[in-house]
Structure formats: C-alpha cells, structure tokens
Amino acid sequence: MKLHFPHGEHPDVMLENGQYTIGGDNAADITIEDKGLADVHVTLTVKGSDYSVSIPNEASLVSINGKLVKDDKEVRAGDLLIASQVHMKLLDSATQATDDDDDGKTRIRMALPQFILRGVSGAYFGKTYPLRGTTTIGRHSDCHICVNAEGVSRRHMQIDADATGLVIKDLESSNGTYVNGEKIDSKELQVGDEIRIDNIRFLVQTPGMGDPTLDQDGKKPKPKSKPVSKNDGQSASGSGAVKWLVTLVILGGAAAAAWYFGYLDGLLK
Predict the structure, then answer these.
(1) Which of 20-29, 176-185, 226-235, 250-259 has the lowest mean pLDDT?
(2) What contacts 209, CB < 8 A, 6 or more positions away?
(3) 198: which of 24, 100, 151, 165 fits an S-S bond (Cβ 3.0–4.6 Å)?
C-alpha cells in the first residue's frame, strides 16, 4: 500500500508496518508545511493488512471520504483522507495513481473555516486551530483546545463561530479572559484581536494569513543593534583618562608618604 498526494504536496510514501506521523513540524515523519497542519495533525498506523488513523487533538480538522473524524478510524485502499488543506489517498502499490481519474463519484470537499486561532506564545507558538461551531478552551482534556498551564481553568473560555462572526465568552475562569488587554465576560471578536489566558496568547486570523512574528522571508527578524554615537565614544575615552589620573594620584601619594616616614632611606643610600 502507498499514500498518494493528488495535489503534489509530498511524494508518494510506500507504507510498511509501523506508525507514520503527518504534520507541519519537521519532527513529523511526513512533513508538509504552510498547509494549516498542526505539528502532528494525524497518525497513520500499519499492522499487516490493517490500516487506521488517529487524531492526537480533536480540534485538528480531519475527514475520511467527506466525514469528519475525531478519534481512531479504520481506513482501506481507495479512501480519501483530508487533513486541513492536504488531500491524501490510500492506493494499492500496484495501482498507478492518476490525478485526473474519474470514478463517477461526487468529490466531497471540506469547506475551510472562516476563522482560525494562531498561538503566538509559549508551547502553542505557531500552532493553528480552526474555529467551527463552539470551541472550548481550557486545561481539561475534554476541551477542544487543551491548554496545559497552571493559571488556566479546566474550562476557561469558549468561542462561538457562525455566519455572522465570532463571540468569545469567559466561563467563570479564576484568572479571567483578556481581549486586546481588556478583561471580558463576553465580546464579539474581530480578525487581528489578541486573546490572552494566563500567559498564553492567541491571535484571531483567517486561513492563509501569515505568522505576524515572521518577516517576508519566513524568518525571525534580527534584533536591531543600537548604533554607537560619537558622544558614546568620547564618554568611554574620558572615563578611561579619569581612571588613569586617579591611579597616578594614589601612587604619588603612597611614594610621598614612604619618603616622609623614612621608608625610602635605605634605598637611596
């Protein structure tokens, strides 16, 4: 069996016994960047002739043949797996994959979410989460987005998404929910708003928006060094001259005291 990528995001992968992690992080076995995948978005397990997928985080968007999957699911040859924006298909190794094959079936496309959350701090930096329906966020593993931090309540907040936009609600958390630095109970969200719970921060974005902390080349901007002004050089030079003058004064005073008390008589004879 092999894993085929109809849109060419990755070369075909021949599948043998074991597990294959698929995600946007370089640590994943199959890495696909800039397609909205979590670090490890989905895991494909092969045991002999049995194939199955599992989703480490139920907030990750995964479907098999058009049906959303939130936990372990068996897959077979011919199944179409969609993870975020990436299409994958299980094919028999002897089957020649052609991207323009038409088996007469209606192709089901998953609609992209209108909004996403992008982590911009801590362990959640760079991770993206689609916002569909109601998304709960908190420390409890049952939350759609589990944030494991001491200052986060078990069920800290929720975001409701519908055709009209987004609304965030604090779920009576101990340390509060903040939008753009303001503590809120309930508030409509706009693209670009910053959400903070404890010391974890997220940005509200639309799919395709880049990471605001990166430059145009996708790299972290280098910190600008402070230029050294002419006055700074003069100040350093003047400070050095003062130190030498003080040293000479101290040495001169010590020599004078030694002469006065006769300590130098033996040396001068």
Answers:
(1) 226-235
(2) 118, 191
(3) 151
- Bridge partner residues of 185 (DSSP): none
Exposed/middle/buried for 126, CB within 10 Å: 0-12, 13-18, 19+? middle
Rounded distance between C-alpha atoms, residue 36 and residue 59, angstroms = 12
CA distance 96 to 92: 9
Average confidence (pLDDT) over 160-164: 83
Alpha carbon of 209 to those of 34, 63, 82, 87, 126: distances in Å? 10, 23, 20, 20, 12
Give the contacts of 197 (CB within 8 A, at least 6 positions apart): 137, 147, 149, 151, 152, 156, 157, 173, 175, 176, 177, 178
User: Using CA atoms, how far apart are residues 120 and 213, in angstroms rounded to an integer?
Assistant: 8
pLDDT of residue 99: 46
Cα→Cα distances 21→44, 128, 201, Å: 6, 17, 27
Closest CA to 88 of 54, 64, 52: 64
- Find the farthest-apart pair of alpha carbons in the chain and give their distance in angstroms, rounded: 119
